[in-house]
Specification:
It is a single chain. The chain is 33% helix and 21% strand. By secondary structure, it is an alpha+beta fold. Strands 14-15-10-7-6-5-4-3-20 form a 9-stranded antiparallel beta sheet, with no helix packed on it. A 6-stranded antiparallel beta sheet has the order 8-9-16-13-12-11, covered by helices on one side.
Length: 581
């Protein structure tokens, strides 16, 4: 298939025709980097893609030397591209280019980083480069350690990360942006690790990570609560690397244009194609379901006795929409996204297909909990790279004064904000793409997003403020506050008026003092009661994964995938994969 014909097939697939085959999708990504639009100089990803295709070895060698001569930068984000180039070389690079690559690991000292993805990238790259250059002493390495010492340190950290993830969940969990770095790290090890145990562990972790995403995806878009997401793609949800992975792995949705840099390195290594059971889990939304997960917080360096706290996630998914949440609180600094409604759209590009609220919390205490820098520079250091952190208008971030309870497609969010808090109000994101928006005299606000009917009841008065890029921000400057949200499918009611009548018929009680409290009956017939400061349910037996497709118990180091009569069991204690029907 020519590239032009492939692009035509791509456009057809986005219109829900037959998607190109997995191998064709992989080739599309490689070609996008091997032959990029425009005439700019090649970067590391372009060099790696051309080496994969065995094209222009001389040009790749010269350009690699130019980049290395200019001085490596980027720390672990330099390490993983250069590691791919080293393994894709296979005798194509010139001796001088290969020597420059080797010398860079002696003269440049990359920072190990401070997040989970940083450490995994760092140690995956160090593991593979120590494997490539064995039996060298510490004078040949930036670490001052021998190849064997570097290898053992990297191997030990990777193995400990796998165990922690399969017992207590990820800390940098379910990020539609950073997920790609975990996928590509395991893809590297699955393809290039020589040790059979490490290779097997990496392939199993690919199944594990893909399952984590598959059960919380809707036409390729990552739904539910996220540990980290950026300001623009929190509202334009398609604009995340998750869209590339949904398309490449399952043929779902649309890839970014051009595909993100994370997906190219995934496919340049193992280009692992998930098994059929994972494809079905990711794409079958015929029947609504509730999916449960337990994750862990980022490392907490102050104010807590335990390094990690539990994160309890609930995600309700059906073909028209998804509703997802965690329990609230500051579970990740700066970029946490605690709950939302996401509705499916035919073409998500440029569409803000989501609704949510948050307390725009900004505090040195939050930063001191999760970072080790001195307090006098904390907020300034964060704002230098995360511009919106200290903004009252922001739409990303968790708050210790926000608590959330979800049952199926009903969400209750309660706030009890102390008077001295920096930004004592809540923000609600109302998309430019909502239709049939109506403020009812009852206090309910009704709207439609795609085929999702949304009813939300602010518990305090509010006003509207514009949002750059379109839409409106609900602004409610009350310390004791809350929001009740009920979603339903358009097919369940004859029209919006029918949905409105059903919502107004639901019993609803609430009070705000001394603590916010709500009691209501949901559209699904359940009585729900939630008091701020009191857990709305028993979290003691919350599973690592639970639902119709994925099961895992806390501390088990096992994962069961389920679809119909198909079963796939990953046992990380024994390093075995068992498939049954």
């Amino acid at each position: 298939m020519t590239r032009l014909a492939f692009l035509c097939a791509l456009l057809c697939s986005s219109g829900h025709a037959q998607a190109p085959a997995f191998g064709q999708r992989v080739q599309f990504v490689i070609d996008a980097y091997a032959h990029p639009k425009g005439s700019g100089a090649l970067g590391y990803a372009n060099i790696a893609a051309r080496l994969r295709l065995h094209e222009d070895a001389g040009l790749c060698s010269r350009r690699l030397q130019e980049l290395l001569a200019a001085g490596p930068t980027g720390d672990m984000f330099w390490m993983f591209p250069i590691t791919a180039i080293a393994y894709l070389d296979q005798g194509q690079l010139s001796d001088s280019a290969r020597q420059a690559l080797r010398s860079s690991f002696k003269t440049y000292m990359p920072y190990r980083g401070d997040t989970e993805n940083h450490w995994l990238l760092y140690y995956t790259s160090l593991y593979l480069m120590a494997q490539m250059w064995p039996d060298q002493d510490g004078e040949q390495w930036y670490t001052g350690k021998s190849s064997a010492e570097n290898f053992r340190e990297a191997e030990g950290w990777i193995n400990s990360w796998v165990k922690l993830t399969t017992t207590r969940g990820q800390g940098e969990y379910d990020s539609p942006h950073y997920m790609g770095l975990y996928f590509l790290s395991m893809s590297y090890l699955a393809e290039w690790a020589k040790d059979p145990a490490m290779k097997k562990r990496a392939v199993m972790m690919l199944d594990y990570l893909i399952a984590d995403y598959a059960a919380e995806s809707l036409d390729g878009i990552y739904v539910g609560a996220h540990s980290r997401v950026y300001d623009v793609p929190v509202v334009e949800k398609w604009l995340n690397p998750a869209s590339d992975f949904g398309w490449v792995l399952f043929g779902s949705g649309r890839p970014l244009d051009p595909p993100d840099g994370y997906i190219i390195f995934y496919v340049l290594a193992s280009a692992y194609e998930p098994p059929e059971i994972l494809r079905r889990i990711a794409t079958d939304r015929e029947h609504p379901y509730t999916h449960y997960e337990r994750k862990r917080t980022r490392n907490r360096w102050r104010f807590f006795d335990e390094l990690h706290g539990p994160v309890y996630k609930t995600t309700y998914v059906r073909k028209e929409y998804a509703v997802g949440s965690d329990q609230g609180g500051t579970l990740q600094p700066i970029q946490e996204h605690s709950w939302d409604v996401t509705w499916k759209v035919p073409d998500p590009r440029g569409v803000h297909n989501t609704f949510f609220t948050l307390h725009p919390y900004s505090s040195l205490r939050e930063l001191q909990t999760y970072f080790t820098f001195p307090p006098d520079q904390g907020i300034a250091e964060v704002v230098s790279s995360k511009k919106s952190y200290d903004s009252p208008d922001k739409l990303v971030g968790g708050s210790p004064f926000e608590q959330i309870f979800q049952d199926q497609d009903t969400v209750i969010v309660l706030y009890d904000i102390p008077p001295e808090t920096r930004f004592p109000h809540i923000n609600g994101f109302f998309s430019k793409d909502l239709a049939e928006v109506r403020e009812d005299p009852s206090g309910w606000i009704f709207a439609r997003g795609g085929d999702a009917l949304i009813a939300c009841r602010p518990l305090q008065p509010y006003s509207w403020r514009p949002i750059d890029g379109g839409g409106r921000r609900l602004f409610s400057p009350y310390l004791k506050n809350g929001m009740v949200v009920q979603v339903a499918a358009r097919s369940e009611y004859p029209d919006m008026d029918g949905f409105r009548r059903a919502i107004l018929a639901l019993p609803l009680e609430f009070r705000l003092t001394p603590l916010p409290w709500v009691r209501l009956r949901s559209l699904r017939g359940k009585w729900l009661t939630f008091t701020y400061g009191q857990p709305p349910r028993d979290y003691a037996h919350w599973p690592l994964f639970g639902g119709p497709f994925v099961e895992a118990a806390v501390d088990s180091e096992q994962l069961m995938l389920k679809y119909g009569k198909m079963r796939r069991v990953l046992d990380f204690r024994k390093l075995t994969v068992t498939d049954t029907r």
